Amino acid sequence: MADYLLNNTDHLIVAGARRLSVKNHKNIEHLIENPRFKLIDLDVADQLNVYDTIHKEQPDYFINFAANSFVGSSWTMPVNHMETNAMAVLYQLEAINKCQPKCRYYNAGSSEQFGNVNYAPQDIGHPFKPRSPYGAAKCSAHHLVKVWRESFGLYAVQGILFNHEGVRRGEEFVTRKITKAVARITNEILDLKDFKPLELGNLDAKRDWSDAEDFIEGIWLMLNQESPKDYVLSSNEMHSIREFVEEAFNFAGFATDQCEWKGCGIYEKYMHGDNTLVQINPKFYRPAEVELLLGDSTPAREELGWKPKTNFLELVRKMVRNDIKQ
User: Fold this and answer.
1) Is the pTM of this model over 0.90?
2) Closest CA to 295 of 112, 146, 26
3) Paired residues of 43 in beta bridges
4) What is the CATH number of the domain that holds 226?
5) What's the N-to-C CA distance of the chain in angstroms?
6) Do the domain assignments include residue 280?
7) Which of 109, 131, 108, 107 minimizes the C-alpha distance to 118?
8) Which residues have a Cβ under 8 Å from the Cβ of 79 and sit 6 or more positions away?
9) Residue span of the structural domain in which 300 resides
10) How far are the Cα atoms of 142, 198, 236, 246 from residue 205, in angstroms, in the given order?
């Protein structure tokens, strides 16, 4: 988002990140010296810090991407997820209402809000039925945004973005975990080294995947309509984790016609000759799985003039190519 705004607007970008003893700024290293980019300490779970920051900076826009966004950890850290994904939104909305009510506010929603879905594809009218503490926190935030918008007239929206991936994706997320492992295995085989297989959980969970870079434009369009409105952003296509694995290895040279799935359940493996590329580890199964998520972004396409530019295969290849290069 910072890259997009620096390239397409004249705004000064004030980026807030929680202060850590070990900095994790790899994704923004190239921006640090830009005179229109300012990095500040900001902990969204600290109400006073949020208030002071908004009071001081007087932003025209406040775009909240801050969250504990790893669904798997939300069962072991449910309070943290509620504090950073829901209470933080309340702090931001209250501070904006008191200090800068003309500020336009965006909060990052999630397709995990739909959870145990009633129908597919899921549109903005689909009921929220979360299946994780993460999803429940995002639902809470969604309702808070709606209440503050309707109660105080704020320009506040929550975009429901289906899975968005890319070369900057955190390595704990399944797509990046796959492409990093494909790169590792490819290089270890080229170096004639033994390698450990990629370990995954539910291979048949289906998701609607897009390139995160495509979604950035959609978010900015949401923030610049005449009236605030929530939208779904999605590719309108659905693919399984199994498909992602096959395409990632295929692009790296492990042709799908030379590989096969053997076994079933927790004993299933993806084989290339005598080499096991992928095996199942039950610890990666979720306590309550969301089996399929498929978005309907028709309103965003028709009303905002937005559509994704990168398809599923291009996304997989882009990520694999980047990780092999690295």
Assistant:
1) yes
2) 112
3) none
4) 3.40.50.720
5) 23
6) no
7) 131
8) none
9) 2-167+210-237+294-310
10) 25, 17, 16, 14
At 245, is the pLDDT very low, low, confident or very high (cuts 50, 70, 90)?
Answer: very high
127: nearest Cα among 138, 113, 140: 113
Identify any residues that bridge with 106 across adjacent strands, giving them in sequence order.
Answer: 63, 157
Q: How far apart are CA 290 and CA 286, in angstroms?
A: 9
One-letter amino acid identity for 167? V
Give the long-range contacts of residues 24-31, CB within 8 A, separation 24 or more.
Answer: 27/168, 28/2, 31/2, 31/3, 31/6
CA distance 115 to 131: 5
Cβ proximity of 12 and 36 under 8 Å: yes
For residue 325, tell me if it sits in a domain: no
| Per-residue tokens: 216 | 């950035």
- Reported as a single tens digit per residue, the pLDDT across 46-78 is 999 999 999 999 999 999 999 888 788 899 999
CA angle 227, 86, 146 (to 5 degrees): 25
* Cα angle 32-37-40, degrees, rounded to a multiple of 5: 80
- Count of domains in the chain? 1
